[in-house]
């Protein structure tokens, strides 16, 4: 079946690139002050979370979360730089863009891809609304809501729908996309904007919404982590539910629906044929 | 993990290799001039859109006394190494004069006492560092518009440049000069902004050549801090030259005796140790021509986000 119209395929891949660049350049920006706070200002002595390095030789990387210390040497706080030497930095070089400490470079990447992300997202949303694709993709239908429990059981056992049922997204998929597309991503943009002093002057409600600039920064960080989680689950499920078929779907638009051979009276648990 | 590599470790290894190739490719791209310029269009768009959204009447949020941060984190230069500045500080800035010149009809030359007699504005605002942290402080000072109106801008005036007392990078020959003062090149005071590599030699002193002939300026070409803003920001009601912080005379670490408060902008625009205000038509001839010390290190001239 023809599953993904060309605009959805294009916006999907642009979005994928944007999210990856935004994540890595965002970690670069975070590294300029690797600590998070709640409220209007930074409470430097009592961060919600902070990464630092110790005076030891070689230095240890420490991550403090809600007052508890964790040794995160090699990952957070202290890790190998591009020349292999241990450097004091929040996230390691392989996770940031640019890889070396470079706040201004990180900001350039971040803003360019933030604009690309927003314009691409708007194109997707407008197309999705006009074509009805968005509704078809993310709003569960009545029968799906009724079968919610069964759908969860199916999902947990990694049994994927086949036949006609595979032509549409299942209820958990729809809800996940709904939350990501219409809640996480827009709130992520708002939290980013709430960190801008100019935007605070133009739209003071942004600060009210997030309970202050430092909270907005923390929300931006946490939402980024949730988006990473979503992408991991998304990629794992793409792999498990037929990688090549899914890739063909998102690259060419064509997706193969496997027909279940029905009925199968002798389908035994041993899998042996009669 | 001896023996032939498993399929999983092969796939993981390939993924890691692809990832690091991608990252180093991105780094190379980020160093290419054309790509850098392309990326910068994102920051140009920030300015374009934010200027559309921000009328002069839009004020940065102001806070209550109870919101004031117990400690206002100083950043960048915290103790200017320059001799002239140290001499001024020793006498509690009694000899300090602020010069206002350039494209003005009536150049000004004001002492701190004279500045304090001008109209006052006090505001409790949030300071947002480009690094990500914020502090709230109370600022008292003279609105920049009061000074500019007194000096009367010439029609071709477009930018206001703030020349500051603090030397950021030492010139080639001036290296030994400051050591006896116990001062380090102040640019190193901020470890997270270490993008200052190697640019020092080519820069010339834009700051106080005429105003401040201290030993460092004679010895080489130190780069003093400077910043520039346009008239939109200059005449904003919250744009003040502050001499008090939290009801006390501005401490040296926060920019004594006079610093710019440019609310609606990030901290790096908010010049400390302001010595001279120059009104210009273009800042292309100052420093490396990007409009400020941090701008010469690659930061965007517009710092609203």
From TrEMBL, chain A:
Keyword Transmembrane helix appears in the UniProt entry: yes
Assigned GO CC terms: plasma membrane
InterPro entries reported in the protein's UniProt record: Cyt_b561_bac/Ni-Hgenase, Di-haem_cyt_TM, Hydrogenase_cytochrome
Compartments, record wording: Cell membrane
Membrane topology classification: Multi-pass membrane protein
An annotated GO BP: respiratory electron transport chain
UniProt protein name: Cytochrome b561 bacterial/Ni-hydrogenase domain-containing protein
Organism: Methylobacterium planeticum
From TrEMBL, chain B:
Regions crossing the membrane: none
Domain Oxidoreductase molybdopterin-binding residue range list: 92-170, 222-281
Residue stretches in coiled coil: none
Segments for region (Disordered): 170-218
Any Pfam family the entry gives: Oxidored_molyb
Signal sequence region: none
InterPro entries according to UniProt: OxRdtase_Mopterin-bd_dom, OxRdtase_Mopterin-bd_sf, TAT_signal
Protein name, entry field: Molybdopterin-dependent oxidoreductase
UniProt organism field: Methylobacterium planeticum
């Amino acid at each position: 079946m023809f599953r993904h119209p060309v605009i959805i395929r294009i916006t999907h891949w642009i979005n994928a690139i944007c999210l990856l660049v935004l994540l890595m350049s965002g970690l670069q920006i975070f590294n300029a002050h690797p600590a998070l706070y709640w409220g209007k200002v930074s409470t430097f002595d009592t961060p919600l979370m902070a990464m630092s390095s110790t005076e030891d030789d070689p230095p240890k990387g420490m991550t403090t979360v809600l007052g508890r210390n964790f040794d995160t040497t090699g990952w957070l706080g202290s890790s190998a730089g591009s020349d292999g030497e241990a450097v004091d930095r929040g996230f390691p070089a392989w996770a940031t863009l640019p890889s070396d400490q470079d706040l201004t470079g990180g900001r350039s990447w971040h803003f360019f891809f933030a604009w690309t992300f927003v314009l691409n997202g708007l194109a997707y949303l407008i197309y999705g609304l006009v074509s009805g694709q968005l509704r078809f993709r993310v709003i569960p239908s009545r029968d799906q809501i009724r079968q919610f429990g069964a759908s969860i059981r199916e999902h947990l056992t990694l049994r994927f729908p086949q036949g006609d049922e595979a032509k549409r997204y299942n209820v958990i998929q729809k809800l996940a996309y709904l939350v990501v597309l219409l809640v996480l991503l827009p709130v992520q943009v708002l939290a980013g904007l709430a960190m801008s002093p100019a935007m605070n002057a133009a739209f003071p409600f942004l600060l009210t919404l997030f309970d202050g600039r430092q909270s907005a920064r923390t929300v931006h960080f946490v939402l980024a982590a949730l988006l990473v989680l979503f992408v991991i689950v998304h990629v794992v499920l793409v792999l498990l539910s037929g990688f090549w078929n899914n890739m063909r779907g998102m690259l060419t638009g064509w997706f193969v629906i496997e027909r279940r051979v029905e009925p199968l009276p002798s389908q035994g648990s041993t899998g042996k044929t009669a | 993990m001896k023996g032939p590599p498993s399929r999983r470790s092969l796939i993981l290894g390939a993924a890691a290799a692809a990832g690091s190739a991608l990252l180093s490719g991105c780094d190379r791209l980020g160093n290419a001039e054309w790509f850098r310029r392309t990326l910068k269009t994102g920051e140009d768009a920030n300015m374009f859109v934010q200027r559309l959204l921000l009328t002069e009447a839009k004020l940065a949020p102001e806070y209550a006394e109870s919101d004031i941060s117990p400690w206002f984190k100083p950043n960048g230069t915290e103790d200017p190494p320059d001799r002239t500045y140290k001499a001024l500080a020793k006498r509690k800035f009694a000899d300090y004069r602020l010069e206002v010149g350039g494209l003005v009809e009536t150049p000004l030359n004001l002492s701190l006492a004279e500045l304090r007699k001008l109209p006052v504005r006090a505001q409790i605002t949030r300071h947002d560092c480009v690094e990500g942290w914020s502090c709230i402080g109370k600022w008292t000072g003279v609105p920049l518009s009061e000074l500019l109106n007194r000096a009367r801008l010439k029609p071709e005036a477009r930018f206001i440049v703030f020349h500051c007392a603090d030397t950021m990078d030492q010139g080639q020959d001036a290296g030994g000069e400051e050591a006896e003062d116990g001062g380090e090149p102040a640019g190193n005071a901020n470890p997270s902004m270490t993008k200052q590599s190697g640019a020092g030699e080519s820069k010339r002193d834009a700051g106080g050549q005429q105003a401040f002939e201290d030993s460092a300026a004679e010895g080489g070409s130190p780069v003093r801090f400077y910043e520039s803003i346009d008239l939109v920001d200059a005449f904003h009601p919250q744009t003040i030259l502050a001499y008090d912080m939290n009801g006390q005379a501005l401490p040296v670490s926060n920019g004594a005796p006079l610093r710019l408060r440019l609310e609606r902008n990030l901290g790096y625009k908010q010049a400390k140790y302001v010595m001279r205000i120059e009104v210009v038509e273009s800042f292309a001839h100052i420093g490396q021509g990007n409009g400020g010390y941090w701008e010469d290190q690659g930061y965007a001239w517009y710092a609203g986000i």
